[in-house]
Amino acid sequence: MDYHTNALAEALERLSTGSFMPAIVARMGETASTANGDFQKTVLAEIPAFSESRNPRLLPDLAEHGAEQTREIMRLLRGGSVEDFAFVCDYAERRADQRFPLEATLHAYRCGHKVFAGWLRQAMLEAISSSVDARQSVASAADFAMEFTNAVSTISASAYVSQIRLLAEVAGDRRSELLAILLDGYDESDGRVAEILHDAGFLEGRQSFCVALAQSIDPAEMLNPIRARRLADAIDETLQGLSTRRLIDLRDNKVTIICSDICRVSGWTVPQIDLAGRLTAELAVVGTAALIGVSNDALSTSQIPTAHREAQLALELADVTQRVTQFSEVPMQRLILHLAGDEFQRVLPAWTGDFLAADTKGRGALVATLRAYADVDMNALRAAERLKVHPNTIYTRFQKILDITGLEARSYNALTELLLVADCGRRSSIGRSERGRAAD
Q: 0.90 exceeded by the pTM?
């Protein structure tokens, strides 16, 4: 930016040395309104974004900005010094606030260069009688016009980008605050919190909510801000087609998503509680590098902390075989084993090791028999059909299980205990192998 303003000051110094400058400026003042009109016409003719925009302030601002540029050019030619171009910064910040494309704004300055350079050149040709002086001045004017355009374009781009970054930081702070309020719970009597939620649309009536959490298959990648943000952006893009309000941000090294949608048209209609299913279907296309957990539907903001816990549990149970796991689809037995964790493993029966060893030696036949027996409502003949073995084989295996554990598998309570121990033992062995691979 300093380079362009210095170059503009040098070009201005070369241009303003002649004694005919007052006459040129006077002539330019007479035709300034025409130059302003030509600027707006040229911009509208060459840049569709200006005429297609529905922003009611865009065209009046464009006309005023053209007039600001002509006034600044004339001030400089009257002997004024190159200053900070505050009017350019203000204009760029307004365009950034309105999310008007930066490339369209910079193209407008290029249009301005053509118009204002011609305006200055014509005034010189009319004010200078000597053809030699006119040629020299026109060359200096061309340099001045180019440096003026370079300066305002550079300053405008810098101010625009800075404002966009500031808006992104503010939006990020607002998202973080909203997530903290919704996920951690809040005091309904807190007026400030109520105002924040109301402004964000979370206190509108007849809504359902759903929470989803996502992370890379390699959790260490979530510690890299760029990679974590890339995953958040990819999920946000994936959910563009989902007609719901959504809040997406990074929290606790996970991509956190809160979706909300109208769950009933009025108080008399049946709730349409399908948000979690719709969200799960959309997230299924995110990619193979992510694991995602989705909560059940929540019917009020007060239930969002519970939904967050459900999403966390679903994420913990997600794996490469089921990358997107919906909490409602997790079997209760698997959930109980997961929640019990190490505490349950510490109170396993003494026969657990012998039972699992025998099952491993038999290539999983003992546990497979128990599962088949449970799946067919404890019918030994149907279990034999499912396993494609003779019914006597089923009874032989039951006897072996009885010899090892002292439990009669044909009893409901014993069968339940045996299956729990089998699942817990499998989970424990998987955990040990994963820790071994991590150590390697």
A: no
